Amino acid sequence: MKTTIRAARGTELSCRSWPQEAALRMLHNNLDPEVAEHPEELVVYGGTGKAARDWNSFHAIGRTLQTLKDDETLLVQSGKPVGVLQTHEWAPRVLIANSNLVGDWATWDEFRRLEALGLTMYGQMTAGSWIYIGTQGILQGTYETFAAVADKRFDGSLAGTITLTGGLGGMGGAQPLAVAMAGGVAICVEVDRTRIQRRLETGYLDVEADSIDHALQLATSATGPLSIGLLGNCADVFPELLRRGAPIDVVTDQTSAHDPLAYVPSGFAPGDEWSVEQARESMARHVEAMVGFQDAGAEVFDYGNSLRAEAQLGGYERAFDYPGFVPAYIRPLFCEGRGPFRWAALSGEPADIAATDKAVLELFPEHESLHRWLKLAAEKVQFQGLPARICWLGQGERHLAGLKFNELVESGAVQAPIVIGRDHLDCGSVASPYRETEAMLDGSDAIADWPLLNAMVNVASGASWVSLHHGGGVGIGRSLHAGQVSVADGTELAAQKLERVLTNDPAMGVIRHVDAGYERAEEIAAERDVRVPMAAAGE
Amino acid sequence: MKTTIRAARGTELSCRSWPQEAALRMLHNNLDPEVAEHPEELVVYGGTGKAARDWNSFHAIGRTLQTLKDDETLLVQSGKPVGVLQTHEWAPRVLIANSNLVGDWATWDEFRRLEALGLTMYGQMTAGSWIYIGTQGILQGTYETFAAVADKRFDGSLAGTITLTGGLGGMGGAQPLAVAMAGGVAICVEVDRTRIQRRLETGYLDVEADSIDHALQLATSATGPLSIGLLGNCADVFPELLRRGAPIDVVTDQTSAHDPLAYVPSGFAPGDEWSVEQARESMARHVEAMVGFQDAGAEVFDYGNSLRAEAQLGGYERAFDYPGFVPAYIRPLFCEGRGPFRWAALSGEPADIAATDKAVLELFPEHESLHRWLKLAAEKVQFQGLPARICWLGQGERHLAGLKFNELVESGAVQAPIVIGRDHLDCGSVASPYRETEAMLDGSDAIADWPLLNAMVNVASGASWVSLHHGGGVGIGRSLHAGQVSVADGTELAAQKLERVLTNDPAMGVIRHVDAGYERAEEIAAERDVRVPMAAAGE
Ligand SMILES: NC(=O)c1ccc[n+]([C@@H]2O[C@H](COP(=O)([O-])OP(=O)(O)OC[C@H]3O[C@@H](n4cnc5c(N)ncnc54)[C@H](O)[C@@H]3O)[C@@H](O)[C@H]2O)c1
Ligand SMILES: NC(=O)c1ccc[n+]([C@@H]2O[C@H](COP(=O)([O-])OP(=O)(O)OC[C@H]3O[C@@H](n4cnc5c(N)ncnc54)[C@H](O)[C@@H]3O)[C@@H](O)[C@H]2O)c1
To answer: Helices A368-380 and A350-363: crossing angle, nearest 10°?
Structure first.
C-alpha cells in the first residue's frame, strides 16, 4: 500500500459529527509523512509504534468512523476495529486497547509471536491512540527536562555546558533543539545518517560533525547554543569520549533501547539483523560509559527508554546507579497535576494555533516558563501535519484552556474545531516502574490500578476517545498507560465534557501522588478542591 | 473490628439514590457472615479475596457513598477509596481497580510485598467488586459444567457415576450439590473439617465419611445421587484411590491452588506455615494422580484454580495433559454471549426473587435447562445474605431480563430495586490463559485488550459500578478481568442504561469469539445484530 495519507483540512465533514471526524483526521494525521517515521508500514514513532494493525484494519476503521452515529462507540483492539455498540451521547466515540498482555505472558517473545500471527500490534503511547503530533510533542517535555537540569545544577541555564546524548529518532530528535533552547551545546550520537539529515532539514539540529575530534572541537569552541550531530554508535562513541576525558557536563540517551531488536549493537548498521544478546551487550558498554561520566561528576539521567534495564540484562551491574528523569526532575510537576497538554487545529490553519497560543498566554499571564516556551515554540517549531501545540498545564488550568478553546470555536475565532489530548506520559495515567512511577515515595511503583482507573474516569467524564496501552516507551512488561482525546467543537455539550475531562484527568495525578504521600500533591488537592476521601482523616 | 456487617433491607435509603445505596448494600452483603468466609478479616471468598483494603477503608467507602451525588463518581483503588470526581448521570457511581500490577512485577512476591505495605489487596473476582452472592454464585456454573460432562460422556446424566474432587471452600463447596443435581455420586476431599461441617449444615453436602474405605463403600453402594465429604489431603487421598483402582468416572479439583500459601501441603494442617516449594511438591503429586485417573479412562478436567501450573512448577511434567473446563465445556456457551447473569433483591425479601424467577421462566419459555435449573435452585438453594439468583443467559436475553426486572420494580411487583451483575468469569470480560481463554482457536489466549475494552464499554454504557481486577481465581500474573453491576430502580434512565449494558456486555463475548474465529459466534453475531466491522468483509 503506497497511498500517501494526510488528514483532511477545513470544515467539510466526511463523518456525521466532529468527534468522529476528529478521530478520523487524527488517525490520518498520525500517518502523514511529515509526522510518521515509516508511514508505509503504519509506524508512527518509537521504532514500532503503529496507528493501526494493518492496512485492512486502517481502512475498516475509516469506513466505520464515517458512518458512526453520535450515540455509538467503535471498539479498537490493538489497531483493529472489532465492534460497534450503541452507547449514548456522553460516551466516547472510540475505545481503544493496544498491546495488552496478561502478566506472565507479557514478554517480547510472546508479543512478537502474537504480532506475527496478526493478533496484536505495538501501540506506543500516542501512535495507536491517534494523538501524536510529531517531534514537537516531545520537544516541550524535553525542553522542560533540560531546563530543570539547568535549574538544579547550572544556575538556570545550560550556557557554557556540553550535553552528550544518543538517538535522533521521533522522540530523541527533539533533544538538540531543546538543549539549544536551554542555552547549551549538545553532541547527539546517531547511528543512522538519514535521521541526522532529517533533523538538519527541520532545523532541530544545527550542524553535523565529521568525526569525534570534529564534534569535540565544535563543542568546546562554541560561543553560544549549538547542536551537533555525530554519526556513530553510542556503544562506541560514549566510551571513547569518556576515555579521552571529554568535558561533558550532562549525559542522557534516547536510542530505541526499549526494544533490543531496534537498538543497533556496535558493529551493526540499521537494517542488519542481530540478536537480543548482542544488543544487550552493547547497551551494557553504553551504560557503563554513562556511569563513568557520572563518577567523573557529570549530571547523568535515564530518559525513559529502558536502557538501564537492558544493560543490566546484558550483565552490567551498576546500570541503575543513575536516576530516571521522572524522579530526578518531573515528579514535582506531576504532584501539581501538570503534564503534556496538547492540541491540534482541525482546520489545518496555522493561524488557529496562533489564536490558541494567544488565548493560553492571556489565561495564565503570571506563568513565566509557559510564556518563554510558547514564544520559543512559535519561533522555532515547524508544524508537522496538522498545526498543533503542546504546553504543560496542571490541575485547575487544563479545563480553563479547554473551555476557552471551545469558545474560540463557537465564536468563529478559529476556523474549525480543536482536538485536545495528551501523551500517556502524564501525572496520573501511567504505571511504569522504570520511568513515570520510578522510586515512588511509598514504594507503589508497580501498582497498575491507576492507569486503569484513569481510563475509566476519562470514559466516565465524556472524552471523545480513550485508550489503554501496554509497553509504550519502556517496552512490553514494563508499563500500563492510558490516554484521552476530547474535541472542542464549540457546542454546549462539548463544554460540559471538556470541563469534566480536563478537571478529572489531571486530578488523577494529584490523587495518585496524594495517595503516595507527596506533600505538594496534598497542598494542590486542598487548594484546587480535589476530593480525596481518606486524606483529611489522616488515614 | 468485630462488628457484624449485614446489608440494610427494605426501602429506606441511607444514600441519595438507589445506585449508591445498592453499592453500599452489596459491599455490606459481601461481608455478611452468611456470605463471607472470614468477614472479620474482610475476606469474602477464595482464601484471600477481600471486599475492602482494611476497616478504615471500608468505613470511608461507606461514608463516601452516603453523600455521593447522582453525577459524582467514587474511585476505589485496591479496596481503598481514593477520590471523588464530578462526572454525569450516565456515568458509573463507582469505578474500581483491584490488585493490578505492571507485567514484570506481576508476581506473588511483589504482590505480597505491596500488600504488607498496605498498598494493595487481593480482589478475587466478585469480592472486591461487591457482587458475590455466596455459594449459589458458583453452584449454577458448577451444575452447568457437570451437566456438560454428563452430556459429553454419560448420555446426559451422571446417574451411576462417581466423581472425585477436592476443596469445599467458597467456590468448591458447590461441587457436591451440583454433582448430585446432575444425578451423580461425589466424593469431596477437604483438609479442613469446619468446611465439611458448613456444607453439611447448608445442605450442600449429604454425608461425611470416616475414612477412605467408608467413602468408597458409601459411593459404590449408593442407589441415587449422593455427596460424600471426606476429611483428608488431596495430595494423599487422590494417589491412594488411584493405587486402589477405585471406580472413579470423573475427576476435578477446587482446592485453593491458585495461591501456594493457601493450598495445604501433605503433612500440614490449615493454619500451619509452609513454603511455596512444599505446596508445589504436594500439588505435583495431586495432579500426577489426576493424570493417572485420566490414563485409566476417567473424564478429568481442571476447574480453574491454576493447579496444573503450580504442579508443573513443582516438577511434574505432564501437568497439562488434561484440559481446563472452559475449552472442554464452556467455550461454546461463551460464543453465544452466555454467562453468569445474577441478581439480588435489595428489599431482602425472598418473595422478590420468586417474582424474578417467575419472570425469567416466562421470558424464555423454550429454554429447557434454564427451567430445570431454576426449579432445582428454588428448591435446594438456601439464600445467604440478600436473596439472590443466578442463571446463565446469553446475547439477546440478558437485556430482556434486565428490562423486565426494572418493570417489576416500577410496578411495585417487587418491593425494592434489583441489583444485576455477573461474575468476572464471563464470555468477553476476561483474559486468562489457564482458564477462560485457554486454547483459543487463534492462539490469542494471552491478549489482554478484551477485559480492558469490556470495562470501558460498561463504563460507556451506563453500569452503576465497574471493576477491573488482576489475578482472580488463577492468581497474580495469570489473568485480567472486568465486572459490571447495574441497578434496576424502576426509572426510565435505568431502563435505558440496562438495555445498553446488558446488550453490550455480553456482545463483547460474541465479538471476542468472532475475532478468534469461532463459527458459532459468527452465527450469533449475525442472528442478534452484533456489529463486527471486519467480519462481513471476510477480513
Ligand atoms: N523520555 C520520554 O518521554 C520518551 C517518550 C516516548 C518514548 N521514549 C523512548 O525513547 C526512545 C527513543 O524514541 P524514538 O521515538 O526517538 O525512537 P526511534 O526508534 O524513532 O529512534 C531511535 C533512534 O536511535 C538510533 N539508534 C539505535 N541504536 C543506536 C545506537 N546504538 N547508537 C546510536 N543511535 C542508535 C536509531 O537509529 C534511531 O534513530 C525509545 O526507546 C522510546 O521508547 C521516551
Ligand atoms: N472454576 C471457577 O470458576 C473458579 C472461580 C473462582 C475461583 N476458582 C478457584 O477455585 C479454587 C477454590 O476456590 P474457593 O473459593 O473454594 O477457595 P477457598 O479457599 O474458599 O477453599 C479452598 C478449600 O480447599 C481446601 N484445601 C486446601 N488445600 C487442600 C488440600 N491439599 N487437600 C484438600 N483440601 C484442601 C481448603 O481447606 C479450603 O476449604 C481457588 O483456587 C479459586 O481461585 C475457580
So the answer is: 170
State the distance from the centre of ligand 2 to the C-alpha of B199, rounded, in angstroms: 14
Answer for the pair A251, A298: CB distance below 8 angstroms, yes or no: yes
- Segment A351-380, tens digit of pLDDT: 999 999 999 999 999 887 788 889 989 998
Q: Which of A501, A337, A488 is nearest to A406 (CA)?
A: A488
What's the pLDDT at A536?
60
Q: Tell whether the model's pLDDT for residue A144 goes beyond 90.
A: no
pLDDT band of residue B380 (cuts 50, 70, 90) is confident
Helices (H) and strands (E) in chain A, counts: 19, 17
Q: What share of chain A is helix, strand, coil (3-state, %, to 5)?
A: 45, 15, 40
Q: Which amino acid is at A93?
A: R
**Domains within chain B, CATH numbers bracketed:** 136-322 (3.40.50.10730)
What is the pLDDT, as a whole number, of residue B537?
46
B51-73 pLDDT per residue, tens: 999 999 999 999 999 999 999 99
Binding-site positions of A: 46-47, 124, 170-172, 190, 195, 254-258, 263-264, 303, 473
Cβ of B60 within 8 Å of Cβ of A534? The answer is yes
Q: What are phi and psi of B13, to 5 degrees?
A: -95, 140
B15 included as an active-site residue: no
Sign of the CA dihedral with B242 first, then B245, B251, and B253 last: negative
Work out the minimum CA distance from B507 to partner chain A, whole angstroms: 8
How far is CA A318 from its chain centroid?
27
Residues of B in contact with A86 (CB under 8 A): 500, 503-504
What count of other Cβ atoms lies within 10 Å of the Cβ of residue B2? Answer: 5
Q: Cβ–Cβ of A470/B448 closer than 8 Å? A: yes
> Cα(A505)–Cα(A397) distance, rounded to whole angstroms?
12
Q: What residues in B contact A63, CB-CB < 8 Å?
A: 533
Ligand 2 binding pocket (C-beta < 6 A) is B 37, 45-47, 141, 166-172, 189-192, 195, 233-235, 254-258, 262-264, 270, 303-305, 425, 473
Q: Which positions ≥6 away from A462 have C-beta within 8 Å?
A: A90, A92, A486, A496, A497, A498, A500, A501, B88
Give the ligand with the smallest distance to the CA of A43: 1
Ligand showing the shortest atom-to-Cα distance for residue B123? 2
H or E, element range at B193? helix B193-201
What's the pLDDT tens digit per position in A34-67?
Answer: 999 999 999 999 889 999 999 999 999 999 999 9
Q: What is the value of ipTM here, to two decimals?
A: 0.88
